[in-house]
Amino acid sequence: MEWGMANRMAQLIQSDGRCLFLPIDHGYFQGPTRKLEQPRKTLEPIVQYADAVFVTRGVLRSSVDPDKAKPIILRVSGGTSMVGKDLANEGITTSMEEAIRLNVSAVGISIFVGSDYEKESLLNLSKLVDDGEKYGIPVMAVTAVGKELEKRDARYLALCSRIAAELGARVVKTYWCENFDKVTQGCPVPVVMAGGPHVDTELEVFEFVHDGIQKGAVGVNLGRNVWQNDHPVAMIKALRAIIHENATPKEAQEIYDSVKSGKQE
User: Fold this and answer.
1) Catalytic: which of 173, 182, 237, 260?
2) What are the backbone angles phi and psi of residue 193, rounded to the nearest 5°?
3) Domain coordinates of the chain in residue numbers?
4) What is the per-residue pLDDT across 48-100, written as a single tens digit (0 to 9) for each?
5) Is 68 part of the annotated catalytic residue set?
6) What CATH fold (topology level) applies to the domain 3-230?
């Protein structure tokens, strides 16, 4: 691997082979999402516990202090919204030159396998990989499913993840699912987990994250499970313990409860 590419990958995936990415890019298609109305305010208490932040260029400039920044994964796909006709009809919104100006560690793009815009989104990925390889910037492919959440099964996500890797993505972000090892075993590049199924408790989040790590994921890219929690610092510290300290779900819950109650800073 060329030095620049290897250096940027090392900024993202830590020396233990694990990572905790914090996405706050949701506004690019959802607008002012609950508890992300003011991105700077959302980030301030939790960014120090992340290994990288996944963000759009607008929010990066307006809400992330350059002298306190973590490595940045720049969201470069978009062009659709929740009120539009089809979330899958995305294009590339940010040039690689802009990514270089912003000194990012990686760029991220969604692909929509099985949608009406499958071909377009996969060709977007391919073009982005071409540009990224030229400048030594890794591409993270996000296996998006639009509004069709029932597609989050191992067979579908393994297909999406493998296609992303085949087209040159250096990292794949995909959803956790049952039999998650079928996803990771078929993907020859690092896999990070997005959110899993809707759950009602923190322990359930810790359980699916722990399961995914045990089954081959190198880390997570979790946003709403962190900053929409009533105690985001407690949540991110507990998740960090699972990822970087091999904590069990029970141990993570104890950390969460301790930080929540103020017994641990």
Assistant:
1) 173
2) -90, 135
3) 3-230
4) 999 999 999 999 999 999 998 999 999 999 999 999 999 999 999 999 999 99
5) no
6) TIM Barrel (3.20.20)
